[in-house]
Amino acid sequence: MKQQISRLSPHQNGKVFGVMMAVTSLVFLVPFALLFALVQPAGKSGPSLLLLLLAPLMYLVFAYCAVAIGCLIYNFLQKFVGGIEFETSTDLDAR
Q: Using the 8-state DSSP alphabet, how is residue 43 labeled?
């Protein structure tokens, strides 16, 4: 059965995606910060703790805003061009 998504929740989707991006940024940020701390030139300081705390927060805020704006645009445009279409089936249909 074909269905269309008629509305995306800007706040909920932005919240979920923002937290997901913040957590994902830690997966990359922590190893790179440790690597840079190991290979830094003598006398230079490594990445600051402020950067390690601020980067995931910035990812969260920017991802939330981008997804919320994207959802608002989708909600406006779907009235004119239709929503994202997908097809569903039950286990009985798959046999």
A: T
CA-closest candidate to residue 64, choices 28, 29, 34, 21: 21
pTM of the model: 0.77
pLDDT at 33: 79
* Six token digits for residue 91: 């286990």
Whole-number Cα distances in Å, 50 to 14, 33, 68: 25, 12, 27
* Residue 54, token pair as written in the block: 């601020």
Q: Is the Cα torsion angle 55, 61, 62, 63 positive or negative in sign?
A: positive
CA dist 93 to 61, 87, 89, Å? 42, 12, 6
Q: DSSP readout, 71-82?
A: HHHHHHHHHHH-
Q: Please state the φ and ψ torsions of residue 4, each to the nearest 5 degrees.
A: -125, 145
Question: With 80 as the cut, is the pLDDT of residue 49 above it?
Answer: no
Strand partners, 86: 3
